[in-house]
Amino acid sequence: HKKIRKAIRQQLGYVDRNLKSIKTLVRNGLLALLDNVLYRKLLIISELYRQQLWMYENKSHKIQDRIVSIAQPHIRPIVRGKARTKVEFGAKVSISLVDGFCHCDTINFDSYNESTELIDQIKSYKDRQGCYPESVHADQIYRTSKNRKFCKENDIRLSGPALGRPSADKEKRKAIRQQQYQDEVGRIPVEGKFGQGKRRFSLGLIMSKLAETSVSTISLTFIVMNLEKILAAISFFAYYLWLSLRQQPKTTHNYHLSQINTPCQYNENHTNKYFLNHLLRF
């Protein structure tokens, strides 16, 4: 521990020395020689030095709006508590799934408790659909007392076990457990959307550097996922229509040149059906 603190102190001294040299150049009016990119990096490094010095002096590893990347200063460390990666870096994305279609509610790079957004997301659903949802299948972190109270006041069933003593009626307890199981099963698709986005749509490989372009890239990913679902539905309908036309009884038509050239014997609907049947054979 002492060796680490000594190394950090030395590195902070090196950065402080360089920043003092830059301040001397600034007083001589040489700051105008920097382009926008270098000037932005200078500001980021100055703030990064201030944060690291404060954490060193206070023997802490936490500070508000901590910078962990010079290229992406908007990125924040997010403690997830997972076995493989205890700390993750990137955007917090909150989505809602309605009839298989994703709606991106929030994209935020700060580390915060996402349970505070559930009420706003439910209200946003009402603005889009015109009514509150019958049920909300959310993770355990969203089942706070405030969210439970809001859902109860608006006749919304929030997934998860209810608070208080369980019912004495055995049949009622069994029905409640079955409903809780169905709610947990219904929550699986929304978790699977993140896996689908990372596996097939490069959601876990966002290469954009700016916060605005990263938000646009993430939003476009979910739009493409919705478009793929629409395309799959259209393809299934077209295939079903093709099978229906294939199963119709086939009849033999003998067309003579004199019949086609005679206007009074030309049947437009019959001819279009004939060409449609032959076209679908290919």
Distance between the termini: 75 Å
Average pLDDT score: 82
Overall, the morphology is: extended
Counting DSSP E segments of at least 2 residues, the number of strands comes to 6
- Could you state the oligomeric state of the chains shown? single chain
User: Helix proportion of residues, in percent?
Assistant: 40-55%
Strand order of the largest sheet: 1-2
SS element count, helices:
9
Instruction: Give the ordered list of helices and strands.
Output: HHEEEEHEHEHHHHH
C-alpha Rg (nearest Å):
31 Å
Largest sheet features: 2 strands, antiparallel
Structural class: mainly alpha
Question: Uncertain runs with pLDDT below 50, 5 residues or more?
Answer: 255-282
Percent of residues in beta strands: 5-15%
Short description:
The protein has 282 residues and is mainly alpha-helical.
Question: Can you describe what's shown?
Answer:
With 282 residues, this protein is mostly helical. The chain contains 9 helices and 6 strands, in the order H-H-E-E-E-E-H-E-H-E-H-H-H-H-H. It has a two-stranded antiparallel ribbon with strand order 1-2. Strands 3-4 form a two-stranded antiparallel ribbon. Helix 4 links the parallel strand 5 and strand 6. Helix 1 runs antiparallel to helix 2. The longest helix is centred in the C-terminal third of the chain and has 36 residues. The protein starts with a helix and ends with a helix. The C terminus is likely disordered.
